[in-house]
Write a structure and sequence with these properties.
- The structure is a single chain.
- This protein has 187 residues and is α+β, with helices and mostly antiparallel strands.
- The protein has one domain: Ribbon (Umud Fragment, subunit A).
- The chain contains four helices and twelve strands, in the order αββαβββββββαβββα.
- The strands form two sheets. Strands 1, 2, 3, 4, 9, 10, 11 and 12 form an eight-stranded antiparallel beta sheet that branches. A four-stranded antiparallel beta sheet has the order 7-6-5-8, with no helix packed on it.
- A hairpin with a 2-residue loop joins β6 and β7.
- It starts with a helix and ends with a helix.
């Protein structure tokens, strides 16, 4: 058996190593994002704080899915802080917007009152490999893929996971399962 001083030192080093591990995980696995602007209303509002699981962890075993809310660095032709938008089209998808209604591979994307539509037309376009087509939830007040182009996979910071501020909005981020909605959608 070791001396009490040695055990105390070993315990202290163990606690310090554990604290360092927790710090590193929290620093590199999850980042805090503050929503700015009205592009994601009514689902996310200006000033709300969201925890974002970094891309390397969130998409370790899968790719971004339609309906995921992602934070990403804007393309070079657009300056500013990272954007937050919803993934609409994944690589290989044909995306078209007719009178504000979104079609994925010819199927109407059923969207309810949680999305504010405009009446624009766009496409059809094919989402290239390694790229994503994104739209805000408040489309009349959002700069999206029709304006900024496709989002490169390497530009994705991560996936919105948890709303943490204000306390009244605490809970899971409003990611949608568009794949299951598209299965039941008619062309």
């Amino acid at each position: 058996m070791g001396s009490p001083g040695r055990r105390l030192l070993r315990d202290f080093v163990g606690i310090l190593a554990f604290a360092l591990l927790i710090f590193l995980i929290s620093r590199f696995a999850v980042v805090r994002y503050v929503v700015s602007g009205e592009s994601m209303e009514p689902n996310l509002r200006t000033g709300e704080q969201v925890l974002v699981v970094t891309r390397h962890l969130a998409y370790l075993f899968s790719e971004p899915k339609r309906g995921d809310i992602i934070v990403f660095h804007p393309p070079r032709n657009v300056s500013g802080e990272p954007f937050i938008k919803r993934v609409i089209g994944i690589p290989g998808d044909v995306v078209e917007i007719r009178d504000g209604r979104v079609y994925i591979n010819g199927k109407l994307l059923p969207e309810d009152g949680r999305i504010y539509r405009d009446h624009c037309d766009y496409g059809p376009v094919v989402v290239p490999p390694g790229k994503y087509f994104v739209l805000g939830d408040n489309r009349p007040h959002s700069i999206d893929s029709p304006e900024i182009g496709f989002v490169d996979e390497d530009a994705i910071v991560g996936k919105a996971w948890l709303c943490i501020w204000p306390p009244s909005r605490w809970g899971k981020a409003p990611n949608f399962d568009y794949d299951s909605l598209l299965e039941g959608s008619a062309a």
